[in-house]
Amino acid sequence: MNEAARLTVGDTAPAFSLTDDAGNTVSLSDYAGRKVLVYFYPKAATPGCTTEACDFRDNLAALGDLGIDVVGISPDPVDKLAKFKADQDLNFPLLSDEDKSVMTAWGAFGEKKNYGKVVQGVIRSTLLIDEEGKVALAKYNVKATGHVARILRDITA
């Protein structure tokens, strides 16, 4: 199986500038000097992705108390992200990576197993980027349910 090149702790996070759910350009450099949790998900408004997004929404205060911002990235177009954000009352930016170039650079797009078949797709992933733009935590092939609790446990351990 040909896996995407994954980022590991200590790597410099690849720069990006993407359009968010409100039509604004958001760049990784906007978070310089702060910690940011970047999570990649396959498709807005699907059951797993909704569960994961709502988990981040419901835990945003706990993450904020640790000085961590949250950004979600999917290949969905901006209008779909805006609807998803409104429907789920999400309180963090959702970014559109329609050409999947950012996902590929971050190791979140490539071959994965889906119901026993090898397919090309978005690899549900979460990476914590520190104040210097380095990867502090990298989780690939994460489960949507209970994911944020596992992340909080890992970063406060």
Automatic annotation (TrEMBL):
Gene Ontology cellular-component terms listed: cytoplasm
Reactions that this protein is recorded to catalyse: a hydroperoxide + [thioredoxin]-dithiol = an alcohol + [thioredoxin]-disulfide + H2O
Enzyme class: oxidoreductase
Molecular-function GO terms, alphabetical: thioredoxin peroxidase activity
Domain Thioredoxin per the UniProt entry, residue ranges: 7-157
Active site residues according to the UniProt entry: 49 (cysteine sulfenic acid (-soh) intermediate)
Keywords: Antioxidant, Disulfide bond, Oxidoreductase, Peroxidase, Redox-active center
PROSITE patterns: THIOREDOXIN_2 (PS51352)
Known EC number: 1.11.1.24
Single Gene Ontology BP annotation: cellular response to oxidative stress
Superkingdom of the organism of origin: Bacteria
Transmembrane segments: none
Pfam families membership: AhpC-TSA
Oligomeric and partner information: Monomer.
Family indicated by similarity: Belongs to the peroxiredoxin family. BCP/PrxQ subfamily.
Function: Thiol-specific peroxidase that catalyzes the reduction of hydrogen peroxide and organic hydroperoxides to water and alcohols, respectively. Plays a role in cell protection against oxidative stress by detoxifying peroxides and as sensor of hydrogen peroxide-mediated signaling events.
PANTHER family noted in UniProt: AHPC_TSA FAMILY PROTEIN, THIOREDOXIN-DEPENDENT PEROXIDE REDUCTASE
Protein name: thioredoxin-dependent peroxiredoxin
